[in-house]
Specification:
By secondary structure, the chain is α/β, with parallel strands linked by helices. The chain has three domains: 85 residues, Winged helix-like DNA-binding domain superfamily/Winged helix DNA-binding domain (Arc Repressor Mutant, subunit A), CATH 1.10.10; 99 residues, 3-Layer(aba) Sandwich (D-Maltodextrin-Binding Protein, domain 2); 109 residues, 3-Layer(aba) Sandwich (D-Maltodextrin-Binding Protein, domain 2). 44% of the residues lie in helices and 22% in strands. The chain has twelve helices and eleven strands. The strands form three sheets. Strands 3, 4, 5, 6, 9, 10 and 11 form a seven-stranded mixed β-sheet that branches. A two-stranded antiparallel sheet has the order 1-2.
Length: 311
Amino acid sequence: MKERLRGVDANLLLSLHVLLEERNLTHAGERMTMSQPAMSGALTRLRKQFDDELLVRSGRGFELTPLAEELRPLVAEAVEAAEALLGNQRDFDAATSTKRFTVSMSEYAMTVLAEPLTRVFAEQAPGCTLALDPLDVRRDQVETQLMRRDLVVAPLGFEFPGRTQPVFTDRLVCLVARDHPMLRDGALSLDDLRRMPHAVAEFAAAGDQRRPLEVAVEDQGLAGRTVLVQVTSLLTLPFAVAGTDMCAFVPSRLARRCLDVLDLAVAETPVAPVRITEAAHWHPRREKDPAVVWLRHLLHDVAVDLEDELG
């Protein structure tokens, strides 16, 4: 395998690296500042070099062939070594750089971080760009996502691979319609919670692991609660509950934004407080990348302000 890699045109090595990470000609071209036809031409030459398709069409995207999967870590290692040799990893100057950063976030983290992060990012790195996209992957794709992104922001507690840095915390609160008939003096009892229907959100990247809330409600004797509605995003839970007799546990930052717009109320409950932490995750090979280190420090500064705000 390494002999085959040594025979690759050095000018194509970075194209191969980006194609194996992005699995998308358009996205790979953006990272390489190449047009899609030029990227397609590079892929054609690489296919001829390896006598393998490398990327094969699967639905609306591409999948790696078995050979490409074998090549991916070797190519990443070769590119990293080349960057270290040529000094590309030595310095990062945010004020003058034109780097394109890529960050995937849970949709909830996006609502909290997108505005303050992009504002500070634009101030400190005016020539750089920040591409944000939602984290919506199956459990077995998380490691691939880490390889393709500078950072991934997702909840702690699900044993994601890679390195981790906590970003911000929140607590879960119970949302109900403001005129809910069971709501008495702004509170619901355990018996109320057992009898009323619930709306819950699934987290695809967690796989079979349970959310902290699920563990907490079982500890409080609510394992048999009635789940009437399941959604795929925390952001849709307030809309699912509005105007119904259901309840839903959502992060307090999200709840506060929806109370007046959707005529909802936060109900006090006997369920022990459940805290959640959103954290930055990154692949180990990005640990010492000066640009990613700078981005992590920037995210930390934004997070400090967010925690002060919550307090």
